[in-house]
Each structure stands twice: as C-alpha cells, then as structure tokens.
Amino acid sequence: MSNEQIADLRRKADQGDPEAQFGLGLVYSLGHGVPQDYAKARQWHERAAAQGYADAQVRLGVLYAEGKGVPQDYTKARQWFEQTAAQGDANAQNSLGALYEKGQGVPQDYAKAREWYERAAAQGNGMAQSNLGALYLNGQGVPQDYAKARQWYEKAAAQGDAGAQNNLGALYEKGQGIPQDYVMARQWYEQAAAQGDARAQSNLGVLYAEGKGVPQDYTKARQWFEQAAAQGDANAQYNLGVLYHKGHGVPQDDTQAAKWFEKAAAQGHAGAQGYLGFLYGNGHGVPKDYVRAYMWLNLAAAHSTGNMQKSAANNRDVIASSMTPAQIAEAQRLAQ
C-alpha cells in the first residue's frame, strides 16, 4: 500500500469512518506500508467496533484469542465473537465454535461447537464446513460418521480450503466413508500441498514412498517430506529420518537420520524416539550412549501403544542390562 493510500485511509479514519478505521487496523496488523504494530491495530479496530462495524469486532476477537497487541484473553475474544455472531456474521460464528471445541474461554462443549459451525457453514463459510467435517470424523458432539465428514470436507475443499482438501485426501487413502482410492487421495493432497499445507505435503511423501496411487519414487517422497519438514511437520521429519537410515532416495546416512529423528522426537513422535534409542544404543550416526538410548526408548514406550510400545520397552530393557543403576536413574530423570 502506497504512502498516499495510507494517508487517505488515515484521514478518513480520523473523521470517524468505521470502514477506514477497520482498514487502517488491518494495515497495522499486516504491516502493509507501515511497521507491523498490533497495539495500533487494536486501537483502530476498537474505534470501528464501537460503531458496530462487524468485521472490526471479529478482528478484535482474533487479536484477543491470539494475544496480539493485547494479553491473550479467550473470555474477551468470546465476548467480541458473540456480539458479531448474534448479528449473523459467519466468521464470528465459526470462531465462536472453535472456542467451544477447544474449551477456550468457555467450558469445552462439542455440541455447542457444532451448533455454531452449522450456522456458519449454512452461509457457505469454508472453515466452518471443514470444522464440521472434523467433528463428524472424530465423533465429537455428533455420532462418528465418515460419510458426513466427507460431505462437509467436499464443500470446504471446493472453496479451496487446504485443510479440508488434505482431510478429504486422507478419507480416500483410508477408505473411510468412501471406497479406497489412492489416485483420488493423491489429487486432493496435491491441491492442498500446492497451497503449502504441510500435512498434505507429508502425506504425498508417504504415497510416493509406498507407491500408492503413483509409481514408487523415493526421490519425490524425499522432496515432499523436505517441504513439510521445513514447516515443522513431525511426521515428515520422522519419514525423512527413515529415508536416510535406510538409504532410500538418498545415500545411507545415520548422522542425517539422527538429525531428523531428533526434530521429530522433540515433538513427541514415538517412532522417532524409538529410532533414536536404537541409534544411540548402537552408536550409529551418533556416539554410543546408553543413557540417551534408554531415555529415548523410555519415552517411545510411554508415547506408543501395541507392538510399538512392546518393542520400545523390550529394547529399553536390553539396554538396561548393560547399564549401572546410576545410569538408569539418570536416564529416567532425563525422560521426565
């Protein structure tokens, strides 16, 4: 935004124009043509909101929910969302539903979350449609229903919602509420991945690594995992570690594997924690260190179930047989 446009917006805002006040608040919030300043954004949004400008009221709710320019306060966020939701604003209705879903500023209540999402979704709000799909997918506030989850995801995906596109791809991949179809899964993942959705990028990597819906191609798998891992996706970081550990699409390199497993393990990824335990226990890619091996295997056992949990616990106990009581105590302390 040019200096002239900002000056014109400021002049109108100073004269009391609520649309200009809201616009100037956005300029400060986004840092377009001015240094980003959430406190000034809040001030201008408050002036517009005081005149009943709905978009400003919603934006104030977002600032309080995210703690930008104000101390984070979900109760105040709820109050602003309620004012605008009562006027029929779909974005506010969706945001209010999210507060009830997460129990932020209100007791967690999936039924109320669904009610607010439904009001917003009925107005074509893509985020609300996607959120409704998630409730039906997980059976929260409604009976679990994959077919209804798919229907809501389809509505949101058609509007370009990347999260819904990814989740729709997952339904096709798993055959939930629809016949299993890896090609369709890939197509939906690709649409979401093109928008930068890390989960979709990671999921595409898995399809290429396993040859589902595409010819198996570890190089393309690595490329997708790298994009998602750079955004902090733990599953992608773990899968990159596996590629380096096994030498799939890259030269075998346990040092690189350990680096990626460390990133995923720090986010609580049980598979990565188990692999790190193995690497430290055997000195592959890292110095042999029974204390760290025990620590990671202990964490893997605590964060997993079934066969993975049994394997981690068994490997931990094997490592423990070569450790002193003091080393085991230190490993248990580090795992806390």
Protein model, in words:
The protein has helices at about 5-15, 20-30, 40-50, 55-65, 75-85, 90-100, 110-120, 125-140, 145-160, 160-175, 180-195, 200-210, 220-230, 235-245, 255-265, 270-280, 290-300, 305-320, 325-335. The protein is an all-alpha fold and about 325 residues long. It is globular.
Helix/strand order: HHHHHHHHHHHHHHHHHHH
Count of helix runs: 19
Structural class: mainly alpha
Q: Report the average pLDDT across residues.
A: 96
Shape: globular
Which consecutive residue ranges, at least 5 long each, have pLDDT under 50? Answer: none
Radius of gyration: 25 Å
Biggest sheet, open or closed, and with what strands and sense? none
Relative strand content: under 5%
Q: How far do the termini sit from each other?
A: 50 Å
Can you count the beta strands? 0
Helix amount, in percent? over 70%
Structure, briefly:
With 336 residues, the protein is an all-alpha fold.
Which terms would index this structure?
19 helices; single chain; mainly alpha; 336 residues
Set down the secondary structure blueprint:
Layout: H1 3-14, H2 18-30, H3 38-49, H4 54-66, H5 74-85, H6 90-102, H7 110-121, H8 126-138, H9 146-158, H10 162-174, H11 182-193, H12 198-210, H13 218-230, H14 234-246, H15 254-265, H16 270-282, H17 290-302, H18 306-320, H19 325-335
